[in-house]
Write a structure and sequence with these properties.
Elements: E1 4-8, H1 17-29, E2 35-40, H2 45-49, H3 57-63, H4 68-75, E3 79-83, E4 86-89, H5 94-104, H6 111-116, E5 126-131, H7 138-145, E6 148-154, H8 160-176, E7 182-189, H9 196-209, H10 221-228, H11 233-236, H12 241-253
Parallel strand pairs: 1-5, 1-6, 2-4, 2-5, 6-7
Antiparallel strand pairs: 3-4
Amino acid sequence: MSTRIICIANQKGGVGKTTTAVSLAHGLTQKGKQVLLIDLDPQGQCATALGRSPEPGVFYLLTMGHTLQETAFLKSWVRLSGREGLYLFPGDQQTMAAQTVLNAQDQPISAIRQSVSRFFREGLHYIIFDTAPSVGGIQERAVWASDLVIVPTATEFLSADGLGKVLRMMSILQERKNWRGNLLGILPTFFDEQTRESKATMENLQEKFDASMLQPIHRSTLLRECAAEGKTIFEFDPLCRAAKEYQALAQHVMKF
């Protein structure tokens, strides 16, 4: 069994990256998959969304070497999420400091891929990265480490800039850095067919990126409420539209 790495990335904040990372991770485990969710965002919100506290595990993941002792230490930071098959590698504000270390050590673009490769033999089907909008070279290294990238983008006029930046970054990584991964798809979020802006943005996205478009995630107050309670949407209201949409995303991901 090979472990697939999926990165959730955008150069704009507030587009639903963490919600997508957590919901996709839990959705995949509900289909019998073993998933490790790695929180590369200094806000540490993956832990919060799962009812846990942020911790500095990712700082060590990004700055430590590959000796047996270091690997054993890093594996001790893997946390049980309380959901069968779903494991969390937590991050916190110290992830920002890891960027300074990566630059000071002049770590290669492959640094994160090499670091997480120690988990490939742990019976994992998927490793999912949640990334910050822009943390220096961490997001670039995370994308390069990934087999597939999902780009959530809010269906609002101001979302196009962040989407364009991350797509350009991916193109540069393929052309100049020998990245062998691919875009899994663009995921429209906060979609509301009742508003003119949301509908117009969706039409514009479909016109430009038709072949790469995933089915949208509709705007839902439940997604905010469940995160505040440390529950996933599948625990909070498994029959709601948002839960069904993220279930469909997990099903789609399993085709790749």
